[in-house]
Amino acid sequence: GRIRIANERNFTLAKGESVSGPLLIMSQNAELQEGSSVEGPVIMLCCNLMVDGKVNGSVFLVSGNLMVKTHAEVDGDVKVMSGNLSK
């Protein structure tokens, strides 16, 4: 799939929404809600990311905080550079 680039101030992938391919997020805060899915890796530059949906790939966050919630399914690696990871 094609790369989807999200650069809104805040980005939300809501329940029932999906991205087919890598998701690159350049925003203040982002949320992948329960029932959402990404068919590929998620790469985020800066700020806060909350994952509660399905990611068929890795999650990579540069400079920020990553929260992996109870409904999250991540098939790949979860990596945070210069930030915090909480579950």
General description of the model:
The protein is mostly beta strands and 87 residues long. The protein is 0% helix and 59% strand. The protein is built from no helices and 11 strands. It has strands at 4-6, 10-13, 18-19, 23-25, 29-32, 37-38, 42-51, 54-55, 59-68, 73-74, 78-86. The strands form 2 sheets. Strands 1, 2, 4, 5, 7, 9 and 11 form a 7-stranded parallel beta sheet that branches. Strands 3-6-8-10 form a 4-stranded parallel beta sheet, with no helix packed on it. The radius of gyration is 11 Å and the shape is globular. It starts with a strand and ends with a strand.
Which descriptors would you attach to this protein?
seven-stranded parallel beta sheet, 87 residues, mainly beta, four-stranded parallel beta sheet
What is the string of helix and strand elements? EEEEEEEEEEE
Total beta strand runs: 11
Average pLDDT, rounded to a whole number, is: 95
**What is the overall number of helices?**
0
End-to-end Cα distance:
29 Å
The helix fraction, in percent, is under 10%
Structural class: mainly beta
**Oligomeric nature of the chains:** single chain
Shape: globular
